[in-house]
Amino acid sequence: MQTLLLLMAILLFPRTEAGEIIGGHEAKPHSRPYMAHLGNCGGFLVREDFVLTAAHCWRSSITVTLGAHNIKQKEETQQEILVKRAIRHPDYNNPPHWNDIMLLQLEKKAKLTAAVSLINLPSMRDKVKPGMVCSVAGWGRLAINTRGDGKLHEVEIEIQSNKKCISRYKHYNNIIQICVGDPKKIQTTFKGDSGGPLICNNMAQGIVSYGNTSAKPPRVYTRISKFLPWIKRTMRRFKLLRSQ
């Protein structure tokens, strides 16, 4: 009888896979070498001396860790670099999380290795459309009340129509934001994943921005293609000295 009850419990209440982002799985170590850990957020390396992330991840002092899989361990692949300058978009507005994008200029250039490399940014012509399946990764919570285990996790998520976010978030702006995550699936980012990249066709198309507190998708991502002029202009403006 006990065996039968145990079998029923397994069938009715299946366990989630160990090490989920929410509804995902642990990433293969260093398979996303562009990922950056900022302590409270994620980010991604777009130039040897610049990391892109969300503006709401701003803090007065930030150390970026590159080449990490398990942030609770000191891995030989890791590079810790202080942030020289945190540059939030000048029109960032919170709330309603408009223009939620920030560039972090590093104190020194990252050393590019098998575990540390750049991710491509889209062109202004590149577009994401509803139904596209993209991916996102982070070191955030594994469930609403479960902290991350220190390892990088990833999940595949689907681009949604703008109307699904317009109906849920009153400040959603489809020009500068992307609606991401099938509301019928428990697959999403959550606290601690902010600032990480939405990867579509090997390009960073979005930045994890915000969502509701229940972690139910869809959630809102910053649309990178709309900020390319600002990104390029800012990186040209702030250049490290040759001696660095």
Automatic annotation (TrEMBL):
GO terms, molecular function: serine-type endopeptidase activity
Signal peptide coordinates: 1-18
GO cellular component term, pick one: cytoplasm
Domain of life of the source: Eukaryota
Keyword Nucleotide-binding (UniProt): no
Domain (Peptidase S1): residue spans on this chain: 21-236
BP GO annotations: proteolysis
Residues passing through the membrane, by range: none
Record InterPro entries: Peptidase_S1_PA, Peptidase_S1_PA_chymotrypsin, Peptidase_S1A, Trypsin_dom, TRYPSIN_HIS, TRYPSIN_SER
UniProt keyword terms in alphabetical order: Disulfide bond, Hydrolase, Protease, Serine protease, Signal, Zymogen
Pfam families xref list: Trypsin
Listed PANTHER family: DUODENASE-1, KALLIKREIN-RELATED
Protein name: Mast cell protease 3-like
Species: Hipposideros armiger (Great Himalayan leaf-nosed bat)
